[in-house]
Amino acid sequence: MEFPGLSATNRRNVIEGTDVPAIPTKHYAAELQRQLRTLLGHEQIVTQAYGHHLLIKRLDDEEPTVVARLTGLGRNRYGAAFRTHNGRWEPLPGTGSLEEMADVVVTLLHPYLQPDNY
Question: What is the pLDDT of residues 23-49, one digit of tens each?
C-alpha cells in the first residue's frame, strides 16, 4: 500500500490498525465530559484522553481522582471499568456507544462521581 506523505512508522500504524489519532480521542473525551456533567447535574467531573481510554475524574479539593474509564473497542463501541481503592481496574457490565456507556457509568457509580461536599 502507498501512503504519500506519511512516515514509515505512520504507514505501518495505518496498515496494522494501530494508528489512533489524538484529536478524535480528545473530541470524544470532551463529549463524554459534557454528557456526564449533564447526567450528574454538576461540573465536578473532568475527562482525559489517555491512549485508547477516556479517563473519568472527580474533582476533589486536593487533586482530581480517577474513578472510571471507558475503553474504545472500535466502531463507536466502548467498554467501561471502575478503579478500585487499590488501583485495579474492574470491568462494568456491557458495551455500548459513548452515550450509552456514560449512562451506565452514572447509574452504577453515581455515589463515587459526586463532589466531596455532596
Answer: 578 899 999 999 999 999 999 999 999
**With contact defined as beta carbons under 8 Å apart, do 34 and 46 qualify?**
no
| Core vs surface per residue 84-99: b (16+ CB within 10 A) or e | eeeeeeeebeebbebe
Please report the DSSP string for the chain in residue order. ---TT--HHHHHHHHHT----HHHHHHHHHHHHHHHHHHHTSS-EEEEEETTEEEEEE--SSS-EEEEEEEEEETTEEEEEEE-TTS-EEEEEEEE-HHHHHHHHHHHHGGGGS-TT-
Q: Residue 11 domain-assigned?
A: no
Residues 93, 82 contacting (CB under 8 angstroms)? no
pTM higher than 0.90: no
Question: Is residue 76 a part of any domain in this protein?
Answer: yes
Print the domain residue range for 43: 21-113
